[in-house]
UniProtKB/TrEMBL annotation:
<feature type="transmembrane region" description="Helical">
    <location>
        <begin position="81"/>
        <end position="105"/>
    </location>
</feature>
<dbReference type="GO" id="GO:0005886">
    <property type="term" value="C:plasma membrane"/>
</dbReference>
<dbReference type="Pfam" id="PF01594">
    <property type="entry name" value="AI-2E_transport"/>
</dbReference>
<feature type="transmembrane region" description="Helical">
    <location>
        <begin position="12"/>
        <end position="31"/>
    </location>
</feature>
<keyword id="KW-0812">Transmembrane</keyword>
<keyword id="KW-1133">Transmembrane helix</keyword>
<dbReference type="InterPro" id="IPR002549">
    <property type="entry name" value="AI-2E-like"/>
</dbReference>
<feature type="transmembrane region" description="Helical">
    <location>
        <begin position="276"/>
        <end position="295"/>
    </location>
</feature>
<keyword id="KW-0472">Membrane</keyword>
<feature type="transmembrane region" description="Helical">
    <location>
        <begin position="334"/>
        <end position="364"/>
    </location>
</feature>
<protein>
    <submittedName>
        <fullName>AI-2E family transporter</fullName>
    </submittedName>
</protein>
<keyword id="KW-0813">Transport</keyword>
<feature type="transmembrane region" description="Helical">
    <location>
        <begin position="302"/>
        <end position="322"/>
    </location>
</feature>
<feature type="transmembrane region" description="Helical">
    <location>
        <begin position="43"/>
        <end position="60"/>
    </location>
</feature>
<dbReference type="GO" id="GO:0055085">
    <property type="term" value="P:transmembrane transport"/>
</dbReference>
<feature type="transmembrane region" description="Helical">
    <location>
        <begin position="178"/>
        <end position="197"/>
    </location>
</feature>
<keyword id="KW-1003">Cell membrane</keyword>
């Protein structure tokens, strides 16, 4: 019996084996997801400096290349040009982040402390307003008191006051945790510098390994796809950051014009959460609506309408101008990526789920196109099935 495989059969066996292995891996990943996630969290914690360093190198790559080109134009040569360009890019990034934090943090903390200090008074005014409405409209809420208890109002004020009061010690604890990660951040910056210094060597090493273990067509595809992946992540992160900054500024300006309190604090929250696709604007609006409703119910309503209008502007005008169709994802796919990413890895998953899904979507689409072209098929919506 001849057991020798032809080249075509060997390719089919390898492809089928890969599909089976991927299927088994996905099955056990979902079956043991809690253990997998716990292990993943531990691994991320251990590798944080290197992940942070890679993120720095990725985000500062274009500024570094601009500095390097400028330094070469002024006559500098040699390996030191790259090192100097990387250091200048890191300094530029550090200055920009520091300036932003220096401008925002003092005012945000002032607003936060003021809110904590005035929370009991705001709550009292809020319940006075509710009681006035109940008396004026002659609303029967006896069943509500039976359900919640007659001391519900006092208990709620006590609990919320306690919550706001306990926020200060929690912030001190948070400060301690931030301080404990400072060393990891320094290590990450050093790792990022090293990656930028040796960028070409890293890329060359990966390419050599790819071409050594894969056929040339496969290696060519993987090299091209790696560039596509980098472009997708770069376009998404940079575009979303620019979009979120603009949305935060617009929110601050409009809140200031309409004389809404805590404009800077709430606009920072809105701008930050806007980085999360689809659900980010609503996540950012919730604390603002809650805070302003306690101060004055109508202001909470006005703020909700304001955020709704801003997000309509963002989704229909600003977002398409900045991001365009660079991800190549339909709206349903973006929603799917955010929901699945958030369900698996929380807020971070909601953010990175979209570019990751865009990469997977692009890969699947190219494979489908390749196989259809290989079969000389063109499938349209109205294609007849024989």
């Amino acid at each position: 019996m001849n057991l020798k495989l032809t080249e075509e059969n060997r390719s089919k066996v390898i492809a089928n084996s890969i599909v089976v292995v991927i299927g088994i891996t996905v099955f056990f990943a979902f079956y043991r997801f809690d253990e997998l996630r716990a292990g993943f969290d531990v691994m991320i914690g251990k590798l944080f400096p290197f992940i942070f360093g890679f993120a720095i190198a990725f985000l500062l790559d274009k500024p570094m290349m601009m500095f390097e080109e400028f330094l070469k134009k002024v006559g500098l040569k040699g390996k030191g040009v790259r090192n100097l360009a990387a250091i200048l890019a890191l300094i530029l990034g550090f200055i920009m982040v520091s300036a932003l934090l220096w401008l925002l943090i003092p005012q945000v903390l002032t607003s936060l402390f003021d809110l904590i200090d005035k929370a009991p008074g705001y709550l009292g005014h809020f319940f006075d307003f509710v009681n006035d409405v109940i008396v004026r409209e002659n609303i029967d809420i006896s069943y509500l008191y039976e359900f919640l208890g007659t001391d519900f109002e006092k208990e709620l004020i006590t609990n919320l006051t306690s919550f706001f009061s306990s926020s200060l010690p929690q912030m001190v604890t948070l400060t301690g945790k931030v301080t404990s990660t400072f060393f990891n951040i320094i290590l990450g910056m050093m790792a990022g510098l090293y990656i930028m210094f040796e960028k070409e060597n890293f890329i060359l090493g990966i390419k050599r390994t790819t071409y050594a273990f894969c056929s040339k067509p496969v290696a060519d595809y993987l090299s091209r796809f790696a560039k596509i992946t980098a472009d997708i992540f770069n376009n998404f992160i940079v575009g979303k950051a620019i979009d979120s900054v603009i949305i935060g500024v617009i929110t601050y300006v409009l809140m200031t014009i309409f004389k809404m309190p805590y404009a800077l604090l709430l606009s920072v929250i809105v701008g930050t959460t806007n980085m999360i696709p689809v659900f980010g604007p609503f996540i950012g609006a919730i604390p603002g609506v809650f805070i302003l409703m306690i101060i004055h119910p109508l202001q909470g309503l006005y703020f909700a309408l304001l955020i709704l209008a801003i997000q309509q502007f963002d989704g229909n005008i600003l977002g398409p101008i900045i991001l365009g169709d660079k991800l190549g994802l339909p709206s349903l796919a973006i929603l799917f990526a955010v929901v699945i990413g958030g369900g698996m890895f929380g807020i971070l998953g909601m953010f990175i789920g979209v570019p990751i899904f865009a990469v997977i979507y692009t890969a699947v689409r190219e494979v489908v196109e390749y196989r259809l072209n290989k079969k000389n098929l063109k499938v349209e919506l109205n294609t007849k099935v024989e």
